[in-house]
UniProtKB/TrEMBL annotation:
PROSITE patterns from the UniProt entry: S5_DSRBD (PS50881)
GO cellular component: cytosolic small ribosomal subunit
Keywords, alphabetical: Ribonucleoprotein, Ribosomal protein
Protein name: 40S ribosomal protein S2
Domain S5 DRBM: 30-93
GO biological process: translation
Single GO MF descriptor: RNA binding
Native organism taxonomy: Eukaryota, Metazoa, Chordata, Craniata, Vertebrata
């Protein structure tokens, strides 16, 4: 069997173990955004050890999203590692209509094929340019006219 699309991977529940697979199927349509970088400290016998935690969201504008937290000693390493992990954890979010069927679907479905962190509570109307499914603070997504 030859895999021809990302949907074939989801259909047969195949694990994605290399980020280059996502690059091959989604390529240039993927956009990543660093949501937050925060220092975290651990108390050791010799003092404190500071590391950096990076929160990264990645998506194409066609219903594929990924959200990851990565901790590392350096900021650049944390961001780079988080982007790779976000590609590995990318999922397809089914979009549905709210109310009547005018325009394109824009809300998240509350059944089936999404992890529990994507939508909490009931399906609700959402502005179309928000990361409404990814975090509770609803950060503004880049408005480059490509959102569908």
């Amino acid at each position: 069997m030859k895999i021809k699309s990302l949907e074939d991977i989801y259909l047969f529940s195949l694990p994605i173990k290399e980020s280059e697979i996502i690059d091959f199927f989604l390529g240039a349509s993927l956009k990543d955004e660093v949501l937050k970088i925060m220092p975290v400290q651990k108390q050791t016998q010799a003092g404190q050890r500071t590391r950096f935690k990076a929160f990264v969201a990645i998506r194409d504008y066609n219903g594929h999203v990924g959200l990851v937290v990565k901790c590392s000693k350096e900021v650049a390493t944390a961001i780079r590692g988080a982007i790779i992990l976000a590609k590995l954890s990318i999922v397809h979010v089914r979009r549905v209509y709210w109310g009547n069927k005018i325009g394109k679907p824009h809300n998240c479905s509350m059944q089936g094929d999404r992890p529990p962190w994507l939508c909490a509570g009931a399906s609700h109307p959402c502005p179309q340019r928000h990361w409404h499914c990814l975090c509770s603070c609803a950060q503004e997504a880049p408005d480059d006219g490509r959102y569908k």
